[in-house]
Please model this.
Amino acid sequence: MSALSFDVIFVGSGPGGYVGAIRAAQLGLKTAIVEKDKTFGGTCLNVGCIPSKALLESSELFSMAQHDFSNHGVKLQQVQLDLAAMLGRKDKIVKDLTQGISFLFKKNKIEAFRGVGKIIKAGTVEVTADDGTKTSLQAKSIICATGSVVTELPFLKFDEKRIVSSTGALSLESVPKKMIVVGGGVIGLELGSVWARLGAEVTVIEFADRLCPVMDKGVMSVLQRSLTKQGMKFMFSTKVTASKVEKNEVTLEFEDMKSNLKGTISADVVLVATGRKPFSSGLGLEELGVQMDKMGRVLVDDHFQTNVPGIYAIGDLIPGPMLAHKAEEEGVAVVEMLAGGAGHVNYGTVPSVIYTFPEVASVGLTEEQAKEQGIPYAVGSFPFAANGRAKALGFTDGHVKILADTRSDKIIGGHIVGPRASELLGEIIVAMEFGGSSEDLARTFHAHPTLNEVVREAALAVDKRARQA
Ligand SMILES: Cc1cc2nc3c(=O)[nH]c(=O)nc-3n(C[C@H](O)[C@H](O)[C@H](O)COP(=O)(O)OP(=O)(O)OC[C@H]3O[C@@H](n4cnc5c(N)ncnc54)[C@H](O)[C@@H]3O)c2cc1C
Model:
């Protein structure tokens, strides 16, 4: 066994690990990273954010070519799907980006080790490579960034052909005729949208009585209406209780929780998207007595340190939203603190996005949350239908809603459903980060004609001064 010494070791090379490692190296810390998979980048780059967005873009173009180009006077004789090419494009994007991370590690002089990392004791990580070779790494600070994995339901075991996880749903070899999505959360809606656009008849079964209950109610009802227009069907307050897999079909038994009525529904593919759970198997945390909650999330203090000194954790492994940008910010903050700086994550401005069509993007408090917290607020809302650029694009569904605290006019929330909502949210996040008011946004130049003008009009509408409606 060879011993190698570092200032900091990251275990896991997802967005938390690789972004944190780069920041550590920039700060002059001697940095190592351990990854068990063949490629770097974790869930996000390999089987999450990036491949799903690649397929969402391609399937949206396919759908637009079929349904929307003619509105612009562009006539196509025939629109055909080349699924293999679409999946190949997605795989190429993933390959380019994961290889890019190897390059970034070299450029920043980060030593990368392939193999399963196990913390033997505070200060020591043992890496076991595929061929069984063991390497011992030493560091004062070890940062666990081992992320999360999909949750399986006991009666819906993944075979990744008929019953698929999000990973299987990124690589189906043909378009299913019928697809059932169990779970109407972000991943279910995004991947359900992909296959619906490509021609599958998609039914979403959701336990709650509406889509994504933590998101703004009005925004989610616009999205549901739009997805329904696109052909997706929804069953709410419904619990799947059993499944039967046959050669070409899966049949699910379900129960309507309001009426207690039971029924069955069949499809050729079932996507189970009921959530993800933290992953720390084989990392050695239990043996070391690292505290976790009932859901398997590692508990950390304000400095991301566990109850065992020298062992830290970030990203999907710890409480908070399971999002790539949250993991990244935590990776940066923890090493800035280790280097003697003042790392900080502002959890009040973590954006949430659903990359459907229209997109949904949200930051800060919803009206329901502001009420619960007793914060007096004013609402400004403005529709895309009244915006020149949205009309030119032909995408007029949706609106921007801004909430401001009436005592200070400080922005406390932004909720967008509409075209490019994910990009438009950026200026609201920046305004909130700087403690900005709706008046600040309302008085800021916005190029004309742009979709961003809808954000400005919503800010003006907080004080009932919107002009374009
Ligand atoms: C389909 C899908 C779509 C998504 N879309 C988005 C999106 O659009 N935007 C967004 O913000 N988030 C999205 N997410 C969530 C996002 O992928 C995660 O929040 C993010 O990847 C978490 O980062 P992380 O660094 O904590 O962990 P991960 O990305 O999960 O990385 C953990 C890494 O640790 C490695 N590892 C685990 N154990 C060990 C060990 N013992 N030794 C060595 N290596 C180990 C794993 O192999 C993995 O590479 C999506 C997720 C899915 C599944």
